[in-house]
Design a protein that fits this description.
Pfam families: DeoRC (PF00455), HTH_DeoR (PF08220). The protein has about 250 residues and is α/β, with parallel strands linked by helices. The chain is about 40% helix and about 25% strand. The longest helix has 15 residues, at about 5-20.
């Protein structure tokens, strides 16, 4: 009979190898009852080591998995706030900026209220809600297909809206940040929208907390060298930062 911690380790390793597993499969793998597996999955989800699904669980490392917005909003919140404050320092009065949908870019929206002469275009319902009462800021929303998991507008209508404008700075969010695989996200429509954002901006500023490093999602957005500036928290490994600098990318650590 396996000890509890060993059993949970086997469950996590199984999911990392196979991306997903049913309660029945995990019961067979560990030799315990399905009711014990369900209890283990609940505890492992609470520890943010997996995501439960109907009848089983998926690994958080699955390239096609995306946690709901509400699950991500408070994760690494302090780091996201530091990243956002540094990003706002790059904005000047008179700028036209683009805010991608994301929990870190939402923190930028919350820091913009002291500006009086900027234009903001966004595909984020959450950013729009934050800025809707700021009469001193001109805010445009793209429209499009709303993705509940990210509270983002995506798709052809979104891309058409973006094609009509040009911005000084685009602040992008990402699910994955890898030196070889670049910037990535789980959803095809979202990836296409981010690529359009890159195309219409003079300067591309990527915002990422250290948990995104060496993560690869299903859809590639861009090579890492296509961004101009990365703002990341101090949890990022020195070796990773050094390789970015060697590739010619400006990096700010907060």
């Amino acid at each position: 009979m396996l000890f509890e911690e060993e059993r949970k380790r086997i469950i996590v390793q199984f999911l990392e190898k196979h991306s997903r597993g049913s309660v029945q499969e995990l019961s067979q793998e560990t030799g315990v009852s399905e009711s014990t597996i369900r209890r283990d999955l609940k505890e492992l989800e609470e520890a943010k080591l997996l995501k439960r699904t109907h009848g089983g669980a998926v690994s958080l490392q699955s390239v096609n998995f995306e946690a709901p917005y509400s699950d991500k909003e408070d994760r690494f919140l302090e780091e996201k706030q530091r990243i956002a404050r540094k990003a706002v320092e790059m904005i000047q009065e008179g700028d036209a900026i683009l805010l991608d949908a994301g929990t870190t870019t939402l923190q930028i929206a919350r820091e913009l209220k002291n500006f009086s002469k900027i234009m903001v275009i966004t595909n984020s319902i959450m950013a729009l809600n934050e800025l809707k009462d700021c009469r001193n800021i001109e805010v445009s929303i793209t429209g499009g297909i709303l993705r509940p998991d990210t509270m983002a507008f995506v798709g052809p209508m979104t891309e058409h809206s973006l094609d009509m404008v040009r911005v000084d700075k685009a602040f992008l969010a990402t699910n994955g940040l890898d030196l070889q695989e670049g910037i990535s996200t789980p959803n095809m429509l979202e990836a296409a929208t981010k690529r359009k954002m890159i195309a219409i901006a003079k300067q591309i500023i990527l915002l990422a907390d250290h948990s995104k490093i060496e993560q690869v999602s299903f859809c590639k957005v861009a090579d890492i060298t296509e961004i101009d500036h990365l703002i990341i928290d101090s949890g990022a490994p020195d070796s990773f930062i050094q390789e970015l600098i060697e590739k010619g990318i400006d990096v700010t650590i907060v």
